[in-house]
Amino acid sequence: MKTIGIYSFFSGAGFLDLGFETEGLTIDFVNEYNKSFLEVYKFARKNMELKEPKYG
């Protein structure tokens, strides 16, 4: 079965993305303007051992 890839814009800390992944979708690309939020996003994904998306 093919999975749907999500491009996440204005991602914040990534809670919506986590919900998508819980339902079987994949996060392929993340874009967040606020550097503090992006650092939290990266830190959380690393600690939860989730696949790293591309960041922009």
UniProtKB/TrEMBL annotation:
Keyword terms: Methyltransferase, Restriction system, Transferase
Gene3D superfamilies attached to this UniProt entry: Vaccinia Virus protein VP39
Alphabetized InterPro entries for the sequence: C5_MeTfrase, SAM-dependent_MTases_sf
Entry keyword Nucleotide-binding: no
One GO biological process term: DNA restriction-modification system
Molecular function GO labels: methyltransferase activity
Name listed for the protein in its UniProt record: Site-specific DNA-cytosine methylase
Upper taxonomic lineage: Bacteria, Bacillati, Bacillota, Clostridia, Lachnospirales
